[in-house]
Amino acid sequence: MADQHKTRISVDIYGQTYKMVGTETSGHMRLVASVVDDKMREINAHNPSLDSTKLAVLTAVNTVHDYLKLKETVEQLEEELRKLKG
């Protein structure tokens, strides 16, 4: 039954079509695919000799790095907010 509420779309990432399934809106899922595609193309522009597997891994590494930095910033801001409230 829970499967009924899942969004299913096809997206293009770096010249390949992928089927995405998730609980987010199709717009959100397309945005995610677009950001991944943009990041892969950006990295490829600086490293044109990388094959698609290495390019995908480098994209994942860069994305997780960005995520961890943002998470750290959010945690610092939450701590500052707690101090201001306390």
UniProtKB/TrEMBL annotation:
Keywords: Cell cycle, Cell division, Cytoplasm, Septation. Its main location: cytoplasm. GO terms for biological process: cell division. Pfam families: ZapA. It comes from the Bacteria. The keyword Cell division applies. It is found in: Cytoplasm. Gene3D superfamilies: 6.10.250.790. Activator of cell division through the inhibition of FtsZ GTPase activity, therefore promoting FtsZ assembly into bundles of protofilaments necessary for the formation of the division Z ring. It is recruited early at mid-cell but it is not essential for cell division. NCBIfam families: PRK14126.1. Homodimer. Interacts with FtsZ. This is Cell division protein ZapA. It comes from Chungangia koreensis.
